[in-house]
């Protein structure tokens, strides 16, 4: 531009400098063309025509290929303008000269050339831009027909080239897009279908193996693909989509290719023509049978687990690692008498335990956090304050990483078991004691009997009979856990081995409950009296009688044994264990006295004292 | 038995709430030559001890009605009448040595009569040495 500016400064019209002016003022005398006035007519005409044209043009003249150009071409020259004017073409385009020279030479020999879409980088608008030009070289001849110059007519074809390029790119993109779409459709396992605008007719369906293909358009497609009971629901959803012209979307049951029931997720969109009318529906359906079955199984399994949890009377709880209550089963709320789980949710579980149970609960939590299951038993109140005894299993719930994630606690109400166990232990202890006591009584009876037995034979008989009487009383006491017995039962059992005929021994009195010691004592006393009566008294002949009566008056108990009809009574010379038993020992059990009267008409025994148990109705 | 003392001068107090067992225990003591007193509970026993300084042996059951059981009676007697020797029997439980008063002897029910007689003779020998 330096040259341009210098030249502009020379002419003083740099802003509106036109090629016509430049050509007119140029010092042509310094060029092989010589002064303008000397130019041949053909050169003058050619240059005039060129300068007048709006097409970018240039001329290369004579053997020197002197370069002339017009305003349009100045833009192509860019920075080479205006110094290019009048130079040999070789100096204007030195970098292209090797390429241009043969073509230019051939034109001078009479050929014409056209070059289309030649790319050029221009800065005519102040920035570099890619432009395209068509060039046409044609020879210029003088009146003798000799080629004396070359006229290059150009035109800017940038708009056409770029439009063409954009169109080519668009076509390429479209082609690629179609290819991808085709690949996508092929790669997808989804079924594809097309439907008539009102869905009455199925036009095509590619089943992809899981549902049957539609071989031809069908208006009975629903019967083929849907079970009768599902058709109404699907139809309703289709009608809705058609009415609103909105995409159809539904997960529904279908008949699979093998005839069994399956599930698809189906989605279709309306396809419209230029006027916006729906011409068909295009849809895809994915096979979701496996997922649907998994969901159903999960639902079944969840319902199953819920049912199991709800029906168990165990209190099943889930705690977080801080032992805070996060879940309690329905059955658990029932047995723990929890009416509102929110009231206990988040509470620290060990605080539900008292005393030793609290320590055990904390220990079990620590063990579970370390991944170890444990169990303990202890007392805990229900939410309503009822004291219960629980058997508790505490175990860690492992996470996917194999570490304890939460804690499971299962408590079973074993209060009844505990009570029964305690009662049983108590009973066993009591039985052991009573057995020892019985053995001590047996020992006392044996020792006392043997101490005064005149012979081993007599001793053996007496011991056997007394222990037998003791045993019969024990039988009665067994019915009441050895605590009490009715006097009627005791007398009947004690007298049973001594009964001779139905009417010779009688007894009468109110129902009366005796303590175990009273029962044993009265049984032994009755046995002693009956044995004595059989040996010496009323039961030693065929006619004697024994009458036993008892009564309770003003809280005092009185029992009488009266013999009659036996041989005359003579008092015995010495008093043995039998006398001691009925007079002192049995009386002691009634906290009273026992007395034997050796009345000549029959022995009488009278026992007075306190009734030990309760007085019943006669 | 070649005893060098007169056991009749030594009295045994039998404390037992069951009349049959009490009668047998009393007979056992008498048969061995000792004087015997009997009580059916601790309160009776204390009253008898207060009246009879010749009682040198307490032979008591543990389980009994009243203000004290046999063990507490034994400790009370050891406290109040230190020279009185103590024999304890029970069918209910095994009594540990530390539960007994010092030098107290325990016999589980039912006990062999000879063991009691031996123990009584041993005590009598100590007293009359």
TrEMBL record, chain A:
Signal peptide: none
EC number(s) on file: 2.7.13.3
Pfam families: HWE_HK, PAS_3, PAS_4
Residue span, PAC domain: 116-169, 248-300, 372-426
SMART domains reported in the protein's UniProt record: HWE_HK, PAC
Superkingdom of this protein's organism: Bacteria
Assigned keywords, A-Z: ATP-binding, Chromophore, Flavoprotein, FMN, Kinase, Nucleotide-binding, Phosphoprotein, Photoreceptor protein, Receptor, Repeat, Sensory transduction, Transferase, Virulence
PROSITE patterns in the record: PAC
Catalysed conversion reaction: ATP + protein L-histidine = ADP + protein N-phospho-L-histidine
Membrane-spanning ranges: none
PANTHER family: HISTIDINE KINASE (PTHR41523:SF7), TWO-COMPONENT SYSTEM SENSOR PROTEIN (PTHR41523)
Protein name: Blue-light-activated histidine kinase
TrEMBL record, chain B:
Pfam families the record matches: Response_reg (PF00072)
Gene3D superfamilies: 3.40.50.2300
Natural source organism: Methylobacterium longum
Domain Response regulatory: 11-124
Entry protein name: Response regulator
InterPro entries: Bact_response_regulator (IPR050595), CheY-like_superfamily (IPR011006), Sig_transdc_resp-reg_receiver (IPR001789)
Domain of life: Bacteria
Entry coiled-coil feature ranges: none
């Amino acid at each position: 531009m330096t040259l341009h500016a210098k030249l502009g400064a020379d002419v003083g019209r740099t802003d509106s400098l036109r090629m016509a002016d430049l050509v007119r003022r140029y010092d042509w005398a310094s060029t092989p063309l010589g002064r303008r006035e000397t130019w041949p007519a053909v050169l003058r005409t050619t240059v005039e025509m060129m300068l007048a044209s709006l097409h970018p043009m240039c001329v290369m003249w004579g053997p020197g290929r002197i370069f002339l150009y017009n305003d349009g071409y100045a833009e192509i020259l860019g920075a080479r303008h205006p110094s290019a004017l009048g130079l040999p073409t070789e100096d204007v385009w030195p970098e292209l000269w090797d390429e241009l020279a043969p073509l230019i030479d051939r034109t001078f020999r009479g050929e014409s050339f056209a070059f289309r879409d030649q790319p050029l980088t221009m800065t005519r608008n102040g920035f570099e831009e890619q432009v395209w030009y068509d060039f046409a070289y044609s020879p210029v001849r003088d009146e003798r027909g000799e080629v004396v110059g070359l006229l290059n007519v150009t035109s800017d074809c940038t708009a056409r080239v770029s439009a063409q390029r954009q169109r080519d790119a668009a076509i390429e993109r479209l082609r690629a897009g179609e290819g991808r779409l085709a690949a996508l459709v092929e790669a997808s396992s989804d079924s594809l279908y097309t439907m008539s605008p009102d869905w009455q007719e199925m036009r095509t369906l590619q089943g992809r193996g899981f549902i049957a293909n539609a071989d031809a358009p069908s208006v009975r497609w629903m019967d083929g693909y849907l079970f009768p009971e599902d058709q109404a629901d699907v139809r309703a959803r289709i009608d809705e989509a058609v009415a609103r012209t909105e995409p159809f979307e539904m997960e529904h049951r279908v008949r699979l290719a093998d005839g069994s029931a399956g599930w698809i997720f189906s989605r279709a969109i309306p396809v419209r023509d230029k006027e916006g009318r729906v011409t068909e529906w295009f849809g895809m359906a994915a096979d979701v049978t496996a997922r649907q079955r998994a969901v159903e199984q999960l639902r079944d399994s969840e319902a199953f687990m819920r049912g199991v949890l709800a029906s168990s009377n165990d209190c099943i709880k889930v705690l977080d690692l801080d032992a805070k209550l996060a879940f309690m089963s329905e059955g658990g709320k029932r047995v723990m008498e929890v009416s509102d789980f929110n009231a206990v949710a988040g509470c620290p579980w060990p605080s539900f335990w008292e005393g030793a149970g609290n320590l055990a609960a904390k220990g079990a939590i620590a063990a579970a956090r370390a991944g170890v299951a444990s169990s303990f038993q202890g007392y805990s109140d229900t939410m309503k304050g009822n004291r219960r005894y629980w058997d508790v299993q505490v175990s860690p719930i492992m996470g996917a990483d194999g570490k304890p994630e939460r804690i499971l606690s299962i408590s079973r109400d074993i209060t009844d078991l505990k009570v029964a166990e305690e009662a049983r232990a108590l009973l066993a202890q009591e039985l052991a004691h009573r057995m020892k006591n019985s053995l001590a009584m047996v020992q006392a009876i044996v020792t006392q009997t043997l101490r005064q037995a005149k012979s081993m034979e007599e001793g053996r008989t007496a011991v056997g009979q007394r222990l037998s009487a003791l045993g019969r009383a024990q039988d009665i006491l067994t019915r009441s856990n050895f605590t009490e017995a009715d006097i009627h039962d005791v007398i009947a059992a004690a007298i049973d081995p001594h009964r001779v005929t139905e009417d010779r021994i009688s007894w009468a009195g109110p129902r009366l409950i005796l303590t175990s010691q009273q029962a044993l004592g009265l049984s032994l006393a009755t046995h002693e009296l009956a044995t004595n009566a059989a040996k010496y008294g009323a039961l030693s002949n065929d006619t004697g009688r024994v009458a036993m009566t008892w009564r309770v008056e003003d809280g005092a108990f009185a029992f009488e044994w009266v013999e009659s009809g036996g041989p005359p009574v003579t008092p015995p010379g010495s008093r043995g264990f039998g006398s001691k038993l009925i007079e002192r020992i049995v009386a002691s059990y009634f906290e009273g006295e026992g007395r034997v009267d050796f009345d000549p008409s029959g022995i009488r025994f009278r026992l007075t004292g306190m009734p030990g148990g309760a007085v019943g109705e006669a | 038995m070649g005893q060098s003392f007169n056991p009749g001068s030594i009295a045994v107090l039998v404390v037992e709430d069951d009349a049959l067992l009490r009668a047998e225990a009393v007979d056992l003591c008498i048969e061995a030559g000792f004087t015997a007193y009997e009580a059916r509970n601790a309160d009776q026993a204390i009253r008898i001890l207060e009246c009879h300084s010749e009682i040198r042996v307490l032979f008591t059951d543990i389980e009994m009605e009243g203000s004290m059981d046999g063990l507490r009676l034994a400790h009370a007697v050891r406290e109040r009448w230190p020279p009185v020797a103590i024999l304890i029997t029970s069918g209910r439980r095994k009594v540990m040595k530390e539960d007994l008063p010092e030098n107290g002897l325990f016999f589980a029910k039912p006990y062999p009569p000879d063991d009691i007689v031996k123990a009584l003779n041993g005590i009598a020998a100590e007293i009359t040495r």
